[in-house]
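Please check this.
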Amino acid sequence: MSKLAGRNDACPCGSGKKYKKCCMEKDREVAAEARLRRVSETLEDLDQDDDLDELSNSVPDLIKEGRLEEAEKRCAELRRKYPDVGDWIWCTAEVLEARGNRKGAAEYFRKAADYAERNEGFDEKDIRDLRERARRLERPEST
């Protein structure tokens, strides 16, 4: 957008015309396109958040239903689509635990705790719980 020019000021582009007869309309169109892009990006972000939530929330439901292969596929999809979001780590730990892979589940619960420590939005209790879950899974099973 041109430097703050009044309608009747000389156009900042140097044409010698008044701003309203030169670049004002073009600047308005550029500003409108920028607003439209921002709105579009915001809607895209909201769609991604919904998709992330839907994928994450589906994993525990699939585990409860015993559909572990599907849950595992959702974990892989989470990792592929949202590699920088820790949901796939927790979900993978849950699937491994449901499969009886205690060692693998413990490893992923530790990774989840590490992720939570490095990122905002997690409280100390959640981190302690993840680490305790990992320790519990590393202990030999009682017979």
The chain is about 70% helix and 0% strand. The chain has a mean pLDDT of 88. The helical segments are 24-64, 68-81, 87-98, 102-118, 124-138.
